[in-house]
Amino acid sequence: MSSHYESPYREPLVLGDKTYRQISADIVKSVAGPAARSWWIAFGISLALSLWGLGCILYTIGTGIGVWGLNKTIGWAWDITNFVWWVGIGHAGTLISAVLLLFRQKWRMSINRSAEAMTIFAVMQAALFPIIHMGRPWLAYWVFPIPNNFGSLWVNFNSPLLWDVFAISTYFSVSLVFWYMGLIPDFAMIRDKVTRPALRKIYAVLSFGWTGRAKHWQRFEELSLVLAGLATPLVFSVHTIVSFDFSTSVVKGWHSTIFPPYFVAGAIFSGFAMVQTLLSVVRKVLRLEDYITRLHIDYMNRVILLTGGIVAVAYITEFFIAWYSGSPFEDYTYLSWGAATGPYWWAFWSLISCNILIPQLLWIRSIRRNFVWTFVISIVINIGMWFERFTIIVVDLSKGYLPASWSMFSPTFVDIGVFLGTIGFFFVLFLLYSKNFPVIAQAELKTILKSSGENYKKRRDTDAQR
Amino acid sequence: MASAKKYWKGFGDLTSDPDSEAIETREFPTAIPIDPFLNGDGKAYDAQASRRDFLKWAGFSTAAATLAACEGPVVNAIPYVVKPDELNPGVADYYASTVYDGHDFSSVLVKTREGRPIKLQPNTSSGHYAYPNTRVQASLLSLYDIDCLKEPLIAGRAATWAQVDKRVRRDLDAATAAGQKIVLLTAPVISPTFSLLWKQFKQKYPSAEWVAYNPISNSGAVAAYQAVYGQTALPGYDFTKADVIVSVAADFLGDWFGGDHSRDYALRRNPNQAMSRHFQLESNLSLTGANADYRIPIKPSEQAQAVAQMYRAIAWGQQTRDPRIRAAIEALKKAGPAGLLVSGTNDGDVQLLVDAVNRKLRSRAYRPEAPVYLKAVTDAPVKGLISDMKDGRVGVLLSHRVNPVYDAPDSSAFVAALKNVKTFVSFDRRRDETASLAHVNAISHHAMERWGDAKPKIGIYTLQQPTIRPLFQSRQMEDSLIAWMGGVLEGVDAALANDSTATYIPPVTECKLTFHDLLKKNWTENILKGDSTWFSALRAGYYERRDELHPVSPADIDLSPALTRAENRYAKTGKIELQLYSEIGMGAGAQADNPWLQEFPDPLTRATWDNYLTISKVQADELGLKNWRDSKGALNGDRVNLSVKGRTVKNVPVLITAGQTYGSVGLAFGYGREKAGKTALINGNPIGVNAFQLYVDRDAIQTEVQIEKADGAHGFALTQLYDTMMGRGESIVKETTAQIYNRGKSDKSRYNPSEKLLTIDGKQPVSKVDMWAARDRSLGPWFNLSIDLNACTGCGACVVACHAENNVPVVGKDEVRRFRDMHWLRIDRYYASDMSYEKAEAEGRSEGRAFFRALEQPEENPEVVFQPVMCQHCNHAPCETVCPVAATSHGVQGQNQMIYNRCVGTRYCANNCPYKVRRFNWFRYAENDAFDFHMNNDLGRMVLNPDVVVRSRGVMEKCSMCIQMTQASILKAKREKRPLRDADLSTACATACATGALVFGDIDDENSEVHQLHDAEKNKRKYYLLEAVGTQPNVFYNLKVRNKIE
Description:
With 466 residues, chain A is mostly helical. Chain A contains 16 helices and no strands. The longest helix of chain A has 34 residues, at 160-193. Chain A is globular and about 80 Å long. Chain B starts with 10 loop residues before the first helix and ends with a strand. In chain B, the strands form 14 sheets. In chain B, strands 20, 22, 23, 24, 25, 26, 29 and 30 form an eight-stranded mixed beta sheet that branches. Chain B has a seven-stranded mixed beta sheet with strand order 5-4-16-15-14-6-7, with helices on both faces. In chain B, 55% of the residues are buried. Classes of the chains: A mainly alpha (466), B alpha/beta (1046). Chains A and B meet through helix 5 and helix 10 of A and strand 36, helix 28, helix 29, helix 30 and strand 40 of B.
């Protein structure tokens, strides 16, 4: 079988003495068994955080946006920073599952399920912010072009915020369908393996009556391709449109033509970092070391290096243009001497060191393939990318055109609480997912077991020698 | 007999038309369309309409009936049972009146809606004191002050007027019998009719004495005038006649001698005509100094010497020793009769010299023959009063509009002496520091509720009329005096009284005759003298008698002793001198509880809700005093203990201020009020410190000052945190000198180059680089606002006018500190900085941080510019494109409109606004006790303009170009079937502007003033703020021209 052949020089993607049956067992084990104590602790902390965040959100809605640290000059700060950060994180999942599918990158199969779950949960957090940052969130539905009885009122199609509404909602729905579709054969497998009748019933419903007929598989493959084709442009469009929020404005520092590619690269950069963070934990906790290997993190780190490089070039371009323009209005944009030496120097230098300097360590092969190093660097990148959005929004707004209106921003406990709340809520969802869902796309993975599994590779070697 | 009458229902009935007979037999005139639901023979099963249709219709009807039964929130509007003739709901009435509270004086037009005064506007027909300043405009809010007394009190308990009258008359009689004095202590009173009344009061109570008291003394200047011209007054000035103005610390655009010089001054600041040249010698940077062409920093003690040198130079032709003032003296000499010297000092000797200099110059601008009576009182009587009180010679003390317990420098002596006064009656509406010590609080009316008159200046008479029935059980002071006189007025009989203006019913008085009757009689007989009628004077609000103006003959005084005294006055001075001053926003502090004034940013420091020690940067560094910004950007400062001659004021916050002369510090009066009501307190502590404590000998200049650093830090609430234009001047405030402007009038590229952008077709003017379609201007007017930076003095009257007109909320110190003030109109103040990249390079600090720090630092004695900024109503508005719900969009008259109902509050518009004029409702500011100002109570809300919606939480708001005013004018013109005239159109800010800096109108109307200004060919000074952004605003600026010689 030629499709089951892979060059022996390539490293195996599945380690250990795995068979089809073994893979199924590994997946079902965590779903069918009771949750570990560590899971409950993590879940408890996340739930507490998310409830705290919910409290802060309700306080905001009940009292007014004034409970945040914003002012007349700085109308957005942590809210939109968090929004862009979460949306950016989401990008890796779609890139892994859709773009890598189209490019026939088999290594994606161990990680795409969790990456996609991360996408969906991150987009859910992101979508929260545009709603709660409104002064009157109970009227949030006004941003949808729905027929109404307010006269001839219609939304403003010129506004990038409206484009955001379409971009995010499309992205979320396509991602959700794509993710769920991939889950169906795996749910069916679990349905067939679990013994408890209640669980079996639940997974029976979730698996939509999948029987694994050839026709099912054929449709599955076709739909995968179609959805991958749909999702791929979304990878680029969503963050492009998010960047339009800034680049179509007249604010100095925002009004920049390189924002779309630079934001997309930044999003993938931060998204892969988040995947690394999550999978480093998941592979340990769920004992998936055989499936998520050094090779996987190596590949992902290479993507991080590439996109991080694009981001670095964008930073340098921005800095250069701000200086080269000679315009006094560019003196204080988020990448300029004014920002580097001004009151937000710490944000500026966090951004430079976390996003440009520290990730350069990944050029070293041993660090790139080291789980601990990867984990640490991925966290650093996540922090750096948050600061990137913070400086873009706050530094640029704080020193606008008229010096008479310059001001500064300092978060209140509510700002911080809402952000922590979304982190908590994200982990609540992710923990529920990792406990109850097949965290590895086992059906797909089985298709490469014979070509890329360590066991089969070894056997092939011995066969050849014989 | 049964009636045979028949009532026809119509012609058909009369003619017995068969059709109408047929109709009559039917229950409904037209058939109800039930056929579709029934088939021909009335059976439902075979019907045309399907069962589903039937259910649809039935369901809809049921739902509609149910919904109709629901009720929305009901707000009752109660109509007039008997509508007053002159009052139409929804239509504003205007009454000419006068506001005078003992401190600030102005003729006003009171705008009333449904009987409520809601705004004070200039009475422009009056040529004098026509433009109310910030404080006069804000005084309206005090009418609706929930904190004021609502009924008279005896010993702190509510009483009736009958009880009050009984008690006071008893005490007055007792004092008369005991031979004790009855003293009326008032703020300077300029009412001719009151003087008449007082004469009669004195007849009844011969031991009565009237003492006028001015918290900020003008005594020296009055004494000087008295010495030379034999009259208790201050000299008049006509700034339109001055080519050269030399002011020695006279803040004549502020409070100096009662004000009212801004308009005259600004008339001569138009660079297209002969522009005056203004020298200002001062230590604190004042509003006037900020407008000067040349500002010469001197120490407070040097003022007297400066005037003395000018006297020596001009009267005696001596050489001037001091190089700093030589230019000013030369200019004065050269100008001769077109020169004017003014001085802010309260030193009589110095004022004598000033008078002599002006007379020597034969200054046309100096008009001693037109004396000013406003604030013309001397200090001596007050000193006598305190000793009289101490010795028990005062039986009854009546006080009106004075607060010596707060603002007398020797207030403790006053309080101690008060213990020896048997009866202390206060007429003040508020239980302030003084009134709270009163035995009887016989509360008087607010200016909006009372009758009165005034004579601020020779030949100028103004009338004050009530515009609302008294809100509480108050009675105006004059009526109280009449009641205590036994209700008898000499020369006024009851017949005349009954004949009086029918609409006026004195609400609470025991007597038939009121002050109104005396007023009318006095005006008719002694003021109008048959030249005009009472009603026409009342309608105009003022009357001018030119025949009172007579030439004066100055007494010949030997000035050499005065000169010697002036030169030696401050022979011995300390290292640091203190100059006390009054802010344009707070004045002497009588209205410290007024939320509009507390939130009004000082034009120079841009601070709200505070007073502070102004100090120069160098001095602060020497003393180790610092200002620093916290992480929110808000400014904090060190605090000091300030001592003058053994008196100490503790914990005075220090604000480092550009333009403060080294060796001097400044402190504003009017703060530190302990009993001024809730607004003047924060957490129970008074706002600011009481500078009157240091007003030793009632001298605003103190030369023996100790400053000692105190513990702790003070948080300021500044509305502007950066002082300079950071090298962006060419796009923000353009300025030039008169020399360049006049030489290059035809070629404006020398001083007003249009901004150009580099395009593929070469450099193009901004207006040519445009991706948007032009706005359609064919429908109706197209409104523009012109702002003349030369005429704007920065006084801020427009800011308060905008507050009043547009129901702008007050947010309080904490929120202003968070940079969330809601002012729709702000006046940015920039200090000049001569820092440039080239200069920095030469000084070796052109790199990074050092350069930016250098740019931020204003010069030590900077040129100042004021720039009013409101929504620029851009034709290509950045805010309009970004709103997702189109809540802000362009009007057909050019305005950028904000639709509050549609706003969901994303704040994207505010972020994208290059001018940062949009204001977000972070909280609900109305009906919210967290914002305990005037909008959380029914009384305070009476000031709200019913034409402007009160914005709810979570929506964006901003300047609307007073669309409610322009729409009302348009409707009026429509109703009167005439085209719109230029005079119909205005905005609150343009109306309030005394100097004509703001001109509003229709640029498509060729007869309008703004049309002329908008024409860049005719008006070479026109430019747009941040033109290069391409927003194409409907607000434009006229660049600043300084009359300087390079």
